[in-house]
Amino acid sequence: MIKWAEKQPVSFLLEVKAEMERVVWPSRKEIIKLTLVVLGVSVAVGFFLGGMDFFLAKLTEFFLKR
Question: Most buried residue, 7, 35, 40, 51, by most Cβ within 10 Å?
């Protein structure tokens, strides 16, 4: 049996609260910076995949019309 499943729900929630107090949360500046990085990488990957899709579609069209 799973050890944590045997505990009382109140005890479990108290442990969760204690654990959450030990978490080192990022600053607002870090959150904004990392969000912008994620958005930038997502846009770059989107353009790359869109470009590859366009290129491969044109290549397939070229060979099928031949």
Answer: 7
